[in-house]
Amino acid sequence: MTPEKASDAATGGAAGSAAPPAAQRLARPIRVLVAKPGLDGHDRGAKVVARALRDAGMEVVYTGIRQTPEMIAEAALQEDAEAIGLSILSGAHLSVVPRVRQELQARGLDDVVLWVGGIIPAADVEPLRAAGVGAVFGPGSPLEETVAFVRAAVAARRAAGGET
Amino acid sequence: MATRSDAGPDRDAVPSRRALARLISVLEAGGPAARAALREVYPRAGRAHVVGLTGPPGSGKSTLAAALARAYRARGERVAILAVDPTSPYSGGALLGDRVRMPDLAADADVFVRSMASRGAVGGLALATGSVTAALDTAGYGRILIETVGVGQDEVAVARTAQTTVVVTVPGLGDEVQALKAGLLEVADVLVVNKADRPDADQARAELVLLQSLAAPAAWQPPVLSTVAVRGEGVGELVAALEAHRAYLDSSGEGARRARERARAAVLAAAQAQMAATLERAAADDRWDVSWQAVAAHERTPDDIAAELVAEASTRYWDLVPTDET
Lengths: 164, 326
Prior knowledge:
heterodimer; A: 164 residues; alpha/beta; 5 strands; globular; disordered N terminus; B: alpha/beta; Rossmann fold; 2 domains; 12 helices
């Protein structure tokens, strides 16, 4: 990646292109968890998204493939993740997402931002939203949309928590 | 917090784990809030055995940390892993991927894994690694494994944070093993040749043993071990070596000496961070514009203006330093 791209990606984010030393940074970096629940092992999409979020100045915890809902929620708890991206290509989204949600609630993490990327039929988007998913990104979605969603949703969550 | 009625025993500890996770974020962010939080944590820390794992990228530090955690869990001990990965100097972002090497640990409530971005710090750790270690210690994790970013030669900050430093290397690095000799080897309390199922593993181990034999006799001779972390081979021996080193630290007085050394390093690091913040604030005053101009015009040297700035910042230190009282 070129520095020009990096500074483009960082424009408007917490970290500018000439980022000051950590001690002086006012806004802390956004912490995101990218996870791949279920049994399919195709993680290229998840890695591409994780990298785009990193290039946008976020700290991205990548958990890898074949994660159970409990593993994802526990990782989100320990990592103090503010947002979780679930990459699902297996068609199991309608069963997996509510279980992730349930495990998050069991840990008091109801307010963590949740989004889904992958192959999701249009008819399933509304049920997912009803299950607490903030956004759904299908194949071909521009990465900037995911970055913008995470930034806005985390900013709203921080504001709700009284953090500037 | 409401817990489900079918909750397992680990659910009882959820609020404390969540609080710990948030405390770590506060400590990481630095500033007055972090300083106040550490004031609560620090007096209760100092019980855990803190083990540093360092070595070149790809040497298997994450996998070895996971294998060690499993071994300690089998003995009924609670374990924390603090895995540091580099922050991008371009974007300020970081990809923290060490959890990929430890998938099974996420289901164990007595293992706490935290990924940490270096956030611009050099030396293989983050600035807040020491504070976060104290928080994990206070939370009752008796073994704390600190995994550094992949390091080269002289990134040895881990030796100023951990009680026992494990240098992990792999066969086939060739000249990089030579490079290891100068920096990393000096801080090793235990040496591990990981991926020891590779054909050239014996040679790598033999080279390290030879190097060790050239050193002056010392009270603690760092052992050279072989592991295949993905299969857990050699991990029992590593656990025993760590135990032996801890016993040596306790019995020889070396532990107390190192504790003072670590304390000194921690104070100096904190002082440098405070001074840097104070200098930034002092330099924000418009009065310095004329000085920047003088340096730009080559009428004054950066060194001389810097001396004036340091003097100014020192005189007005208590006005300038960020505190929780203001």
